[in-house]
Amino acid sequence: MLNFNKHIKQIKKGGVKVIAKKLRSSFYLLLQAPIYLISIPLIITLHLIKPWYLIRWDELISSRIGHFAIEVELYFCERDAGINTPTQKHLDLFYMKKYVCNKQLEKMWRRNLIVLPAWLLRPLSRVNRFFCLFISSFKEHEIAINDKDSNIHNLIDKLPAHISFTDKEELKGKEILKKFGLAKDAKFVCLHVRDSGYLSRHIKHEYMGERYQYHNHRDADIDKYVLAAEELARREYYVFRMGINVLKPLKSSNPKVIDYANSDMRSDFMDIYLSAKCNFFISPGSGIDGISLIFRRPIAYIGSLPFIRIGRSSKETLVLTKHHINKKNQKKLTISEIFSTNVASAFETKEYELNNVELEENSPEEIRDLVIEMDERLSGRWKETKEDLLLQKKFWSIFEDRIKGLNLQKPIDKKIKIGFGAKFLRENQNWIR
């Protein structure tokens, strides 16, 4: 009954377009009925031979680039490390969603994975899940790749990347960089500032108009990043503003600050190439920076949310979170108060609203200071003081202590290697408690 009401609500909201889509979906399911019937004896047969040869499968979340990048890379890392991997002979098969967020990334994964049509594997997977309700051992046919979103074993630091560019792709990428004005070996940084443009304009056909408003608290204003971008340009970096269907242009007169997201040369290929080759990536922790992570590029996370996620990345990472403000008295919450007000693990905008917490973006100066620190750390010019070391130790001690009190469904990294913005900690010592 609940599903029926849901369909009626969607039809009232979307009208004829939604009706047409639902009719197409129903017709597609009708055509697939024979495949579902064939899947029943096939699943039973595969389960009987499981002790000698295990066939597994899973769907890749190909519609969202963060999932499509990190989860697949961690699957390969765990396979190489012998973690969550069958001991007997086995074969892993995959299928993708209808919409693929990046064709270049799809092409690169297909070089390493066996990807079969969704119309063939999805019915098999669904029939198997039905059997799982009665016999738990059928779950062994599920890879559960979509649970691999946390680098809890620090495998990203320990193992090399599992995809690479062909020689032809390398030449293509270098030629396009030349067209942007970059000389050979020029330094460049990728900058991604999240807004609602991509999800509201680019994904809407898949999610039937859902706009993902529950992620709005993660959005930021590109204007606040101009100061940092121009500082990096002064330090001989080119800055590529990343994104698709962004809401606002990046306004800078500096020729080294490139609004790539609005460029005619923006492409799926260059999205991957730039993210994989940059000196470091600046991001709130949203989607495309996953490419830099799987290619082992340093990342400066700015405005990272929720608070507990700051401890889940790899080395050569710096982070700032948005300011958490008590709506009632307009005071900035301390680390401990962020946890005690139940928003440290808040993934949805409404959770902050219900707990009377509003989020404030980092200032242009705070953003600039963090990218300066990243540049100087990577170039070996950063001078860490005893005060810095003590503040980092104090911050992470409080963070780890408070996180133990949360009943997390998924663990965070066992060893935290990233650094919180040093200048921010120096100037906000009352916050570290």
List the topology elements.
Blueprint: H1 2-14, H2 16-48, E1 54-60, H3 65-81, E2 90-96, H4 103-110, H5 118-132, H6 155-158, H7 167-179, E3 187-191, H8 197-201, H9 226-234, E4 237-241, E5 257-258, H10 268-277, E6 280-283, H11 289-294, E7 299-304, E8 317-321, E9 323-326, H12 335-340, H13 349-354, E10 357-360, H14 364-379, H15 386-403, E11 419-420, H16 422-427
Parallel strand pairs: 1-2, 3-4, 3-6, 4-5, 6-7, 7-8, 8-11
Antiparallel strand pairs: 9-10
Structure report:
With 433 residues, the protein is of the alpha/beta class. It has 16 helices and eleven strands. Strand 1 (54-60), helix 3 and strand 2 (90-96) form a beta-alpha-beta unit.
What attributes characterize this protein structure?
single chain; 433 residues; alpha/beta; 7-stranded parallel beta sheet; two-stranded parallel sheet
For the largest beta-sheet, the strand count, sense and barrel status come to: 7 strands, parallel
Structural class: alpha/beta
- Overall pLDDT metric: 87
Which descriptor suits the 3D outline? globular
Question: Nutshell version of this structure?
Answer:
The chain is α/β, with parallel strands linked by helices and 433 residues long.
